[in-house]
Write a structure and sequence with these properties.
Length: about 200
């Protein structure tokens, strides 16, 4: 049983929910089971999360914040801009592989009414903005530049597509050309095509 200290029940519930999500999946996630695990009354979690969906939205929001921090940290350690952009892609894949259930919650269909949650939207958008900031530096473009937005979305789609394929086990060589499934190479090709 996890130790609960007065005043941090919300954080304790989120931490335990994350463990439960990774271990048992979304379907088994339960506020009552979390209450038992942390040693509080069955109704205590409902003071912080009115229902399971609210808990999952909070988990996804936290996941996006964690992903953004990870992307920024990994790209910040790079020697140059192109390396930083490649590192963002590789960091994204690593995050998804190391937090698969959370990643699927963040991007999957399990969340209801996510449009009505500005915190979730803002935390998800912050990940795109981390990528956009690097591309903006590379292009020397103003933030309002429409081309910058389209290039950012295409880079994000390339990264997310590779990540999805890797999580689905589609990460082998091309049968005809022998080209390997390497996100860093794909991103370098993408970057070489930028103006």
């Amino acid at each position: 049983m996890a130790s609960y200290h007065h005043g941090n029940l919300r954080e304790t519930l989120l931490a335990e929910a994350r463990k439960q999500l990774e271990k048992e999946g979304i379907d088994k996630l339960s506020l009552r089971a979390l209450a038992r695990t942390v040693g509080v009354s069955q109704t205590a979690p409902y003071r912080h999360f009115p229902d399971k969906n609210a808990l999952m939205i909070a988990m996804a929001t936290s996941g996006f914040e964690e992903l953004r921090q990870y992307l920024v940290a990994r790209s910040g350690a790079s020697p140059d801009l192109d390396s930083a952009l490649v590192e963002v892609g590789l960091a994204y894949v690593d995050f998804a592989k190391n937090n698969t259930a959370l990643y699927k919650l963040m991007f999957g269909p399990a969340l209801a009414n996510k449009e009505s949650c500005p915190e979730l939207y803002e935390s998800a958008e912050s990940c795109i903005k981390a990528l956009q900031a690097l591309i903006q530096l590379k292009l020397s473009a103003p933030e309002s530049d429409e081309t910058l937005w389209y290039i950012t979305i295409n880079a994000a789609a390339l990264i997310k597509g590779h990540t999805s394929m890797i999580l689905e086990g589609i990460d082998n060589c091309h049968p005809d050309t022998g080209a390997d499934f390497d996100l860093s190479k794909a991103l370098k090709v993408f970057l070489s095509m930028l103006p």
